[in-house]
Design goal:
The complex is a heterodimer of chains A (118) and B (113).
Chain A: E1 4-7, E2 10-13, E3 19-25, E4 32-38, E5 45-51, E6 57-58, E7 67-73, E8 76-81, E9 90-97, E10 107-109, E11 113-117
Parallel strand pairs in A: 2-11
Antiparallel strand pairs in A: 1-3, 3-8, 4-5, 4-9, 5-6, 7-8, 9-10, 9-11
Chain B: E1 4-7, E2 10-14, E3 19-25, E4 32-38, E5 45-51, E6 56-59, E7 62-67, E8 72-77, E9 86-92, E10 102-103, E11 107-112
Parallel strand pairs in B: 2-11
Antiparallel strand pairs in B: 1-3, 3-8, 4-5, 4-9, 6-7, 7-8, 9-10, 9-11
The chains are: A mainly beta (118), B mainly beta (113).
């Protein structure tokens, strides 16, 4: 099956700093990737849709200036949490949408990144 | 936009019993309905899915049914085992449009031996 990686798998940072999370599709191209956030004992909430070569589309209530998304290639999307605060502590999961063959329009999830802001 | 409701939020069964989790969706254009199992701290794992041109799909102990008219779909697990204990999420999306999966709130299934 298709493989999606995320880096880092966990990160601890101080309040006010910025953190970058990478999402890579390893064996397929993904023009579209999605970023989700999951708080403890809650569901995955869609934050934004990341499209290669264009601006991301953010869900209502998600601050685009705080959660910067860059999808510079067909295999890489990055999420930068700027000026992180303790309330941003969460599990961030990306998914990549397959574009061809047996992967067409299937979503494949990365392993997630645990962010803890002190 | 799409809204997915999932019930129950928690479900406790004895080993060997069946478990049923139900979801409803709001967008009639949705045509893809996967179910995920998530263990603590890990990514969701796809366990079964169904598309809107099918009413039922089965894979060993797991089955999913879809009622497009009523806009609801259900997960059925038979002969439950302790290792089935996890959080289960239903989701919905429109595959042709390449839309994101919208998830239900999840069901914590506990199977006691």
């Amino acid at each position: 099956g298709a493989v999606v990686s995320q880096h880092p798998s966990w990160v601890i940072c101080k309040s006010g700093t910025s953190v970058k999370i990478e999402c890579r599709s390893l064996d397929f191209q993904a023009t579209t990737m999605f970023w989700y956030r999951q708080f403890p004992k809650q569901s995955l909430m869609l934050m934004a849709t990341s499209n290669e070569g264009s601006k991301a589309t953010y869900e209502q209530g998600v601050e685009k200036d705080k959660f910067l998304i860059n999808h510079a290639s067909l295999t890489l999307s990055t999420l930068t949490v700027t000026s992180a605060h303790p309330e941003d502590s969460s599990f961030y999961i990306c998914s990549a949408l397959g574009t061809s063959g047996s992967f067409y329009n299937e979503q494949f999830f990365g392993p997630g990144t645990r962010l803890t802001v002190l | 936009g799409e809204n997915v409701e999932q019930h129950p939020s928690t479900l406790s069964v004895q080993e060997g019993d069946s478990a049923v989790i139900k979801c409803t969706y709001s967008d009639s254009a949705s045509n893809y309905f996967p179910w995920y199992k998530q263990e603590l701290g890990k990514r969701p794992q796809l366990i079964i899915d169904i598309r809107s041109n099918v009413g039922e799909k089965k894979d060993q102990r797991i089955a999913v049914t879809l009622n497009k008219t009523a806009k609801h779909f259900s997960l059925h697990i038979t002969e439950t085992q302790p290792e089935d204990s996890a959080v289960y999420f239903c989701a919905a999306s429109i595959t042709q449009a390449g839309t994101a999966l919208i998830f239900g709130k999840g069901t914590t299934l506990s199977v006691s031996s």
